[in-house]
Specification:
heterodimer; A: mainly alpha; two-stranded antiparallel ribbon; 73% helix; B: mainly alpha; 3% strand
Chain lengths: 289, 360
């Protein structure tokens, strides 16, 4: 059981980290609370399913096309729906909720409410120290780690990353320094949704695909982001691992654990907020005192 | 003049003519109250009555969210907690203890108020997005506990077999409609009072309010409790009307729904969310009644919300109100947009006002 907890927590934590870091990026740069973030994750899973199972494309190609298509769609949505109402914070908020509902209903209409299964990309198990880990879960872990490293490289070793971090730090000064903050915001949306889409594609064979699969990860992701501190990438990563392990421990140890895993994870978030209102690694934004 | 009845009628008519009929928004409010109260007499179709009663329940709920989120700026993403607390408490009390439905509703409101205090206390130090995202957690924690103890809560199925409020359908409708009107106007009154002014100030700059010697903690706790009380009453009425209190009263979807109603109608108005519920809820039900649209109902709802927001980002009612009325530049009172001079101070309005104010 101990080994199961170790592996499950790590895999779930990796997926949550992909989602939470993308959400954090958008919040940090554009102050958008993007409720539709996990809806894009759901869309990517559906897109992958269609390409792989219905159109019989090879796995790697299907995954790549799904991620690119969903990212393009997110940029389109941002331009058409979010940007016109950017100065009204509350309008942005319900625009993202409405977008998520639209995606959910479209998928429900197109595919029905059934659970759809996707065959694993790689079969077989790896046995380490007596624990058998399916290769698909290992793949999730590897992809998550690679993507996190990639995001780190993008943010800290490229000019775009510098611009993103500068905008997140102080939008007005970044604008005065000659950065096109609109374009930076758009690039951030693309990067963040691409991370969510990758998460959607890699987890699709492990979890089932259905139109409501965005709700549970949404709540968990928000808990992680608040726990780690809004807009803090380090916080999101550590928060994701904490929540991943807490959920795994709850499921394996407590009776009725499957029902309680969300409640326990959220209670931990509330407990952390009681002690540190800005989260573990949160920054107190000066203009939002 | 000697006849008090005649005197009363004359007083009512003068007030009606001078205070209500001069402003389109007040006329609309009057028509709305009259419409809600007279509906069963004019058109007693059970289906319509049922829809309007549900609309009334959700109108209380949306208005209570607006008091908390719009006025005090505590944007609550977990408002369903209070609704669910009201629904479950009222249902359990009336089934386990066998008390009268009205007592159950009061118990539901009281329990929701307790929850409001608790959530308010926990969230005192949180601000802005942190508050919104943290409050999202509370109804889900409650939901997890309900599912973990199915003997107590009925699990997935909820608590069914709750007694209805009254025997006849019309009486049921009237109880809900009157409670709705009392609570909505009560909240409107609170929001327009000095208390509401302090809430406005807390939303805009809490530090400045505290610096002015106002105990913001007490105000925030009070508004959490009031808002939760109204939401709890709404939940209890919902449980008694549908005769079941289920997990759907605590779901994320309901919390998001109320946020959509509130922002769609226009925040910090009270009447905005109520208007939004009265437009959107019957509309979605009506769309759902078509076979072809039945599956697309939520989709159409979301698209309408999205499109309306693109054109009216501040919400529906502020936009409509600006079309119907103008503000007097001198005394800041509102006037019907057709008037050339202010009805109270006689200052020129509209284009005339612009000409009079511009230097010669």
């Amino acid at each position: 059981m101990f080994q199961d907890i170790l592996v499950t927590g790590l895999v779930n934590g990796g997926v949550y980290a992909l989602l939470a870091i993308g959400f954090s990026l958008i919040f940090g740069v554009a102050r958008i609370v993007n409720i539709a973030h996990t809806a894009f994750y759901m869309l990517a899973a559906y897109c992958f399913y269609t390409l792989l199972v219905r159109l019989h494309l090879p796995g790697a190609l299907a995954a790549a096309v799904a991620v690119v298509a969903v990212t393009a769609l997110s940029v389109l949505c941002y331009r058409l729906v979010i940007e016109p109402v950017r100065e009204h914070e509350s309008a942005v908020l319900i625009s993202t909720i409405a977008l998520a509902l639209i995606f959910q209903e479209l998928m429900l209409y197109a595919f029905g409410g059934n659970f759809l299964g996707i065959p694993s990309a790689v079969d077989g198990v790896l046995v380490v120290f007596g624990v058998s880990i399916p290769y698909q879960r290992l793949l999730i872990l590897v992809v998550a780690a690679a993507m996190l490293a990639g995001t780190w490289f993008l943010l800290y070793r490229t000019r775009l990353g510098l611009a993103i971090r500068a905008t997140a730090n102080d939008l007005e000064v970044a604008n005065l320094m000659g950065m096109n903050v609109q374009r930076v915001a758009m690039a951030t949306v693309a990067v963040s949704v691409a991370l969510a889409a990758i998460a959607g594609v890699v987890v699709a064979p492990v979890f089932v695909v259905d139109p409501f699969m965005w709700l549970t990860p949404l709540v968990t992701m928000l808990a992680i982001v608040v726990l780690g501190g809004l807009g803090s990438l380090k916080g999101s990563l550590i928060g994701a691992l904490i929540i991943g392990y807490v959920e795994a421990i709850t499921v394996f140890v407590l009776p009725q654990g499957a029902f309680l895993k969300g409640a326990v994870a959220l209670s931990i978030m509330v407990a952390v907020l009681l002690v540190r209102p800005e989260g573990l690694f949160g920054v107190v934004f000066e203009e939002e005192r | 003049m000697s006849n008090p009845l005649l005197y009363g009628a004359r007083w009512a008519w003068v007030n009606l003519r001078n205070e209500v009929l001069v402003l389109p928004s007040r006329t609309l409010a009057l028509l709305w109250v009259a419409g809600v109260l007279l509906l069963p007499l004019v058109y007693g179709d059970p289906y319509i009555l049922r829809i309007v009663a549900m609309t009334c329940v959700f109108a209380i709920f949306a208005a209570s969210w607006d008091l908390l989120a719009g006025y005090a700026g505590q944007i609550n993403f977990g408002h369903a907690l209070f609704f669910g607390a009201g629904a479950y408490t009222s249902a359990l009390v009336s089934i386990r203890l066998g008390v009268a439905p009205w007592l159950g509703v009061v118990a539901g409101g009281a329990m929701a108020t307790l929850f409001g205090f608790a959530v308010g206390y926990v969230c005192l130090r949180l601000r802005g997005s942190y508050l919104s995202l943290a409050t999202l957690a509370f109804p889900l924690i409650a939901l997890g506990l309900l599912f973990a103890f199915p003997d107590f809560s009925g699990g997935e199925l909820g608590v069914s077999g709750v007694r209805s409020l009254a025997v006849s359908r019309t009486a049921n409708y009237y109880i809900i409609a009157v409670v709705m009107i009392v609570l909505v106007f009560g909240m409107w009154h609170i929001a327009d009072s000095k208390f509401g002014l302090v809430l406005h100030a807390i939303r805009d700059d809490e530090v400045a309010v505290r610096a002015s010697g106002i105990n913001t903690t007490r105000y925030k706790l009070a508004v959490f409790a009031m808002s939760a009380f109204a939401a709890g009453i709404a939940g209890a009425l919902y449980a008694h009307f549908l005769r079941v209190a289920g997990p759907s009263s605590l779901e994320v979807a309901l919390s998001f729904q109320v946020v959509i109603w509130g922002i769609f109608g226009g925040v910090a108005t009270i009447y905005g969310p109520v208007a939004a519920v009265f437009i959107l809820y019957p509309l979605t039900e009506w769309l759902g009644s078509f076979r072809a649209f039945g599956e697309l109902r939520l989709l159409i709802f979301a698209v309408i919300v999205l499109l309306v927001l693109l054109f009216m980002p501040r919400g529906l009612t502020p936009w409509v109100r600006d079309k119907l009325e103008t503000q007097c530049p001198r005394c800041k009172q509102r006037n019907g947009s057709w008037r050339a001079v202010c009805r109270l101070c006689g200052a020129p309005l509209g284009l005339g006002a612009a000409a009079a104010q511009s230097p010669r």
